[in-house]
Amino acid sequence: MLLALETANEWCSVALFDGQTVVAHREDNRSREQTRLILPMIDAVLAEQGIHVNALDAIAFSRGPGSFSGVRINAAVTQALAWAHDLPVVPVSTLQALAQAAYRQYQLTQVLAVLDARMNEVYAAAYQLDQQQLMQPLTDESGIEQLVAYDQVRLPDQTQCYALAGNGGPLLTHASELATYSDVHANSTDIARLGYAAFKAGKAVSADQALPVYLRDNAWKKIAEQGSPKN
Predict the structure, then answer these.
(1) What DSSP character marks residue 205?
(2) Is 154 helix (H, G, I), strand (E, B) or coil?
(3) DSSP state for residue 131 in the 8-state scheme
(4) β pairing state of 12-17 and 22-28
(5) φ, ψ (nearest 5 deg) of residue 134
(6) What whole-number distance in Å separates Cα of residue 209 and Cα of residue 148?
(7) C-beta neighbour count of 42 within 10 angstroms
(8) Residue 129 · residue 193 · CB < 8 Å
(9) Which residues of 59-81 are buried (b: 16+ CB within 10 A; e: fewer)?
(10) Each residue's pLDDT tens digit, 80-135
(11) Structural contact between residues 165 and 184, judged by C-beta atoms closer than 8 angstroms
(12) Spatial contact of 56 and 41, defined as CB atoms under 8 Å apart
């Protein structure tokens, strides 16, 4: 049984995944309230299945890039639970989860996942569906997570075969001819499916390696100014 957490983009979402299906799921779109919502939601999904945290095999979490505070909350809660209960952790790319959501919501199989990063920049990476119905990053440069200006995003080869997914899609001035699905958002069910596959592939890490990925260089300066997360 895997617990999946997603707070990286102002939504709060928690799921339990048994390897075949999502057996419990909670989601709340009250922006900026993840700190208050996340722990009660974890308790709710565990109670729904009548299990304790100790019965989990791993915790998967959306490790970023995304909302600075959301990514930080996700990593801190994951670390605290993993340390307290000696559980392995599976970090999942928020952009990869966004691509997975595009498949879940619209059956898109080739997407450029794009999130608004503010400051006239976006986070972006290109993905394609594999035989296990999981989105995987492309092997060219477009599959590498980017933090760049709107018109500097590296587009995948055969760009016309791809769609834009995420709230940053409409910002790409050099890809306006592509179909755009700006209402796609990742939730914990997407984290669960990707995280479970990574866990089975031996990609889990220890709690101290459950680190957030911000991409923006000055993120660590913000941490120093605000104080480290208390786990």
Answers:
(1) B
(2) coil
(3) T
(4) antiparallel
(5) -120, 140
(6) 26
(7) 19
(8) no
(9) bbbbbbbbbbbbbbbbbbbbbbb
(10) 999 999 999 999 999 999 999 999 999 999 999 999 999 999 999 999 999 999 99
(11) yes
(12) no
Query: In whole angstroms, what is the distance from residue 162 CA to residue 177 CA?
Result: 10
Which residues neighbour 72 within 8 Å (Cβ) at sequence distance 6 or greater? 212, 223, 229
Neighbours of 149 (CB within 10 A): 13
Residue 5 C-beta-side C-alpha neighbours within 13 Å: 36
Look up tokens 């290109």; give the residue.
Answer: 126
Rounded Cα distance, 70 and 212, in Å: 10
Longest dimension (CA), the chain: 51
Rounded to whole angstroms, the Cα distance separating 108 from 105 reads: 8
Residues 186-222 as b/e (b if ≥16 CB within 10 A, e otherwise) read: bbbbbbbbbbbbbbeeeebeebeebebbbbbeebeee
Nearest-angstrom CA–CA distance, 25 and 48: 9
Query: How far apart, in whole angstroms, are the C-alpha atoms of residue 102 and residue 73?
Result: 24
Task: Render pLDDT for 59-75 as a digit per residue (tens, 0 to 9).
Answer: 999 999 999 999 999 99
Place of tokens 């890039």: 65
pLDDT of the residue at 39: 95
**Mean pLDDT along residues 160-164:** 96
Q: Which residue has the tokens 């974890």?
A: 42
